[in-house]
């Protein structure tokens, strides 16, 4: 996430009433197996790629980040612990997908070969669908570059398995895409952009550009896509703190998120019609998730849905999460890790459980379980 602008990233929350877990195979009681999971996106799912960018300051490889990660290690995840990409891999019994750039350093050939088969994380904090301002300053890795990196891993995988078996492997793997919020932040913060195009046109162009990148990934053999919609980014601690009296959400920001999600849903429907049986997908309505948990937090096990767990000042949102920041004592009760709206590990795990539930109000046209079983 870029720090040279106001990068309050979207809430990444899952909403599930834990009375039962419905995402299991009805005959075996286990999740369907998948051979690999490949991650594209922004800081919501970044596993540390930005650590390897020489001049980027959009990093989280310092405390208090990682306070609940194994060995209390600050890996570059914008979280107190693991993120949703990690949780999905764990649910399917796969290793945590390592950051792609960690596999580019010397003496990592063995790890690279292994990760190519089970999953790689290409996500980058601050990344957008477009090559925005912070990408030009080499602060993050935009989606188009992540897709280029995927093609490098695709070559590695094909070399190991051969073309036919590689195609079979990829057709059963999961491609998880979490991106779009930083493009909206660029629009919010640019008078020139708002003069040039209205919100409807801009969000439609976002969806169109995303389609181009998905098509490239599809053409390499990807068949199963998990797409996360943009959440209510107007309800992050940083946005609420700007309303110093009532701490209410920024409804204008939320409205633009809704416009993008509408364009995204229509694009995915058209994309599926074009590709027919060669592509299946699950869209997760994270916007609705945020609304539901904020209006009834106790039902989902959360006590604080407005302030950040790590930070300072009003709502703990006056500054990012630093080693000297205030830290909440019970991270399982907070939705937000920091002022930007990154989720705590508890929130990330909640949305993954939601993805695997049979509750279709948050997923369409398939639940994640249906997607990996198709």
Automatic annotation (TrEMBL):
Belongs to the 'GDSL' lipolytic enzyme family. Keywords: Hydrolase, Lipid degradation, Lipid metabolism, Signal. Residues 1-22 form the signal peptide. One of its GO terms (molecular function) is lipase activity. This is GDSL esterase/lipase At5g55050-like. InterPro entries: GDSL (IPR001087), GDSL_Est/Lipase (IPR051058), Lipase_GDSL_AS (IPR008265), SGNH_hydro_sf (IPR036514), SGNH_plant_lipase-like (IPR035669). One of its GO terms (biological process) is lipid catabolic process.
């Amino acid at each position: 996430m870029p720090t040279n602008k106001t990068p309050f990233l979207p809430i990444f929350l899952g909403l599930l009433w834990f009375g039962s877990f419905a995402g299991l195979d009805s005959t075996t009681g286990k999740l369907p197996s998948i051979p690999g999971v490949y991650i594209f996106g922004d800081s919501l799912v970044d596993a540390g790629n930005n650590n390897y960018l020489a001049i980027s300051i959009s990093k989280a490889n310092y405390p208090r980040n990682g306070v609940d990660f194994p060995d209390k290690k600050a890996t570059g995840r914008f979280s107190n612990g693991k993120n949703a990409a990690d949780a999905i891999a764990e649910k399917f019994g796969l290793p945590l997908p390592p950051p792609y750039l960690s596999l580019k350093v010397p003496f990592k050939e063995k790890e690279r070969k292994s990760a190519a088969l089970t999953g790689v994380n290409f996500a980058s904090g601050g990344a957008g669908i477009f090559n925005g301002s912070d990408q030009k300053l080499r602060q993050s890795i935009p989606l188009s570059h992540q897709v280029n990196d995927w093609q490098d891993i695709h070559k590695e995988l094909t070399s190991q398995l051969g073309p036919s078996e590689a195609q079979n492997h990829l057709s059963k793997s999961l491609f998880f895409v979490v991106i779009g919020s930083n493009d909206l932040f660029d629009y919010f913060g640019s008078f020139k952009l708002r003069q040039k195009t209205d919100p409807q046109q801009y969000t439609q162009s976002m969806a169109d550009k995303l389609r181009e990148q998905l098509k490239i990934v599809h053409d390499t053999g990807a068949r199963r896509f998990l797409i996360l919609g943009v959440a209510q980014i107007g309800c992050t601690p940083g946005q609420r703190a700007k309303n110093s009296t009532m701490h209410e959400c920024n409804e204008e920001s939320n409205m633009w998120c809704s416009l993008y999600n509408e364009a995204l849903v229509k694009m995915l429907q058209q994309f599926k019609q074009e590709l027919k049986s060669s592509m299946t997908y699950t869209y997760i309505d994270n916007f609705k998730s945020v609304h539901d948990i904020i209006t009834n937090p106790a039902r989902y096990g959360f006590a604080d849905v407005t302030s950040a767990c790590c930070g300072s000042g009003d709502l703990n949102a006056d500054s990012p999460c630093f080693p000297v920041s205030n830290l909440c004592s019970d991270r399982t009760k907070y939705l937000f890790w920091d002022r930007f709206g990154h989720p705590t590990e508890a929130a990330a795990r909640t949305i993954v459980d939601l993805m695997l539930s049979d509750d279709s109000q948050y997923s369409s046209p398939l639940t994640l379980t249906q997607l990996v079983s198709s």
